[in-house]
Fold this sequence. Notes:
This protein is an alpha+beta fold. It has eleven helices and twelve strands. The longest helix is centred in the middle third of the chain and has 34 residues.
Amino acid sequence: MRTTRLRATTAATAAIAVVLGSGLTACSGGPAQPANLITMTTDSCGGSWHVAGPGWHTFQIRNGNDVGGEIDLTNPATGGIYAEIAGFGPQTTTPMTIDLGSGKYAFRCLFQDADPMLGTTVTIAGHATGTPAQQGTPFNDLVQPAKAYQKYIEGGLTTLLKLVTPLDNDIQAGNLAAARRDWLPAHLQYQRLGAAYDAFGDFDDEVDGRADALGVTSPKWTGFYRLEYGLWHGQPAAELKPVAATLKSDVSRLLAGWPHQEIELIDLGLRTHEILENALQFQLSGHDDYGSGTTLATTLANVDGTRELLSVLRPVLVPRYPGLPGVYTWLDRLQAGLLKQRSGTGQWAPVSRLSTTARQQLDADCGQVLQELDPIPTSTEPRN
């Protein structure tokens, strides 16, 4: 499922842009609109609009249709995208914040059941540098990366089954100490398969679902986190045996069915950002600690998963994203910060025991990685 996101903006700059956006005016030939409102319909992709000059601006983009779609601010000469609103619901208004430089701009409207439409071209004079346009990626350029990642997932699932099998054997034999030892390597292996979760279907919830919706006492809660909760909360082997057996069965069926699954091309780019976005929300916050205190290890596995995605996408990214070296710089920094929290004996510090300074530093490093990754989903979005 695609996440609705506005590209080419950050939370810090958005607040500034609200003030600087006052120089924006727009009209569509109808009744007067607020100065920064641009309405999109199947008849008029924004109408006439202009800005006083380069700099940060906030457009209030309204979908005046009864259907959803996507709005892109583009370079009309190259088709490059400066910013976009995806999953744009009917009769809704969404801000689009962008640093406009000198050059040509035009909105492109892609509404359901309608042909793509390019709006009026607006020229901003001068020599100012703004947010660079991101070129989409032809479908054919993503086919080989998708095949490579498909093969990586198949190998990863094979390894996962090899790691889940001794975990199940431990619990069936009543050796819970060994199970606590074998649980983490198996769970981390699953966490490295970051871009395939959507392709796993219901198996993802069954193998790695949180207890948020069900509660920790629900018999419907299964998978790695359920085992973690039981292993670190003193539950007996008799209670955990069916959970372990179900986990092994689910992984076996997932592996057997994988050759018939397909990763959506758009997910390759989206997941480069979303894997660590989830890690920041659920792992670095300690939310997903059900007793083992290993969410920092999980975050490191998420870093590994992100690196794998970047590796298969590298032929696509190198000519399209000049900021790619910065991604690796901050991934290295985040990884080093995580490894500082692992003892010489391999024990991980729970997030709850980190100093405020250490926790803030990890959050900041992860946040910077996300900022560096942010242009990738747009630059790798598959397009005709």
